[in-house]
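testing teh design pipeline on a random one, pls ignore if ur not involved
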């Protein structure tokens, strides 16, 4: 006997939340086949409840509605029924997963802002059917990439305005301190040890030791704590690092004070929040051949 997968059962269940008045069938075990049918049905539900709750966001308070939908879906077998139930399933995914994920990515976890569901569905349907589209698929994908970055940046600017202001204030105060130099780009640095070796090109592979902190002193990374220098190509790191490394002779140790636009900008890097000014102690150990 070919075993029906639990995911197939779950898909039928998820697709069948339409209201109906059908009652749950009652078991009537009058033959071995009846008993086997019942046993197979029960055996196929192992893990289903957890799947419904954990993956499909079904509230167990509404299991009666789930049963109604299950009975209704199990009786639908035509191509027309299959199309309708597929629409129900994907519609549920849009409501419970896609919209939440997109809104979270665009506006942040705590924001109440949301994209327009009617316009999302209009675009979704046009893309699915290939009819009535206001823009081409290629244009839609390009516009999505561009505008998501614009909207995310605006949301980040609002959410992390204090973080940005803190960095600007720090750099303004820091630039007047003894030994601190500022380049035209806004990078600030202070020479702790002046090396005598060669100066890397931006394409050079360099070996460095470093420690990185935020302006409040929070350490977010350190090769010293790993007891091992790090090796990379000078132009494959943040702009502030590339600029500094291409001015540093081997053997130098500098303090770098990097404004957010020369660091990670609006990107959220975990411990490094958007618009963070970064401070690094950097030791250029060698240029590798």
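output:
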């Amino acid at each position: 006997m070919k075993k029906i997968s639990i995911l197939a059962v779950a898909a039928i269940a998820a697709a069948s939340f339409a209201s109906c008045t059908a009652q749950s069938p009652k078991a009537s075990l009058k033959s071995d086949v009846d008993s086997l049918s019942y046993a197979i049905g029960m055996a196929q539900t192992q893990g289903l409840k957890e799947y419904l709750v954990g993956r499909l966001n079904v509230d167990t308070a509404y299991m009666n509605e789930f049963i109604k939908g299950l009975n209704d879906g199990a009786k639908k077998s035509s191509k027309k029924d299959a199309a309708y139930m597929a629409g129900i399933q994907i519609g549920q995914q849009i409501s419970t997963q896609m919209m939440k994920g997109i809104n979270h990515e665009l506006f942040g976890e705590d924001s109440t802002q949301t994209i327009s569901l009617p316009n999302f569905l209009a675009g979704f349907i046009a893309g699915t059917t290939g009819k009535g589209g206001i823009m081409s698929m290629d244009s839609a994908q390009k516009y999505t990439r561009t505008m998501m970055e614009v909207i995310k940046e605006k949301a980040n600017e609002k959410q992390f305005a204090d973080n940005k202001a803190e960095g600007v204030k720090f750099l303004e105060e820091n630039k007047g301190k003894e030994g601190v130099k500022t380049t035209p780009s806004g990078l600030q640095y202070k020479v702790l040890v002046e090396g005598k070796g060669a100066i890397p090109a931006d394409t050079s592979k360099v070996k460095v030791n470093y420690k990185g902190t935020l302006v409040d002193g929070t350490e977010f990374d350190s090769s010293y704590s790993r007891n091992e220098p790090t090796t990379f190509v000078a132009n494959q790191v943040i702009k502030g690092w590339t600029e500094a490394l291409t001015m540093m002779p081997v053997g130098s140790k500098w303090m770098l004070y990097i404004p957010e636009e020369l660091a990670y900008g609006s990107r959220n890097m975990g411990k490094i929040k958007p618009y963070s000014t970064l401070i690094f102690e950097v030791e250029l150990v060698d240029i590798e051949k």
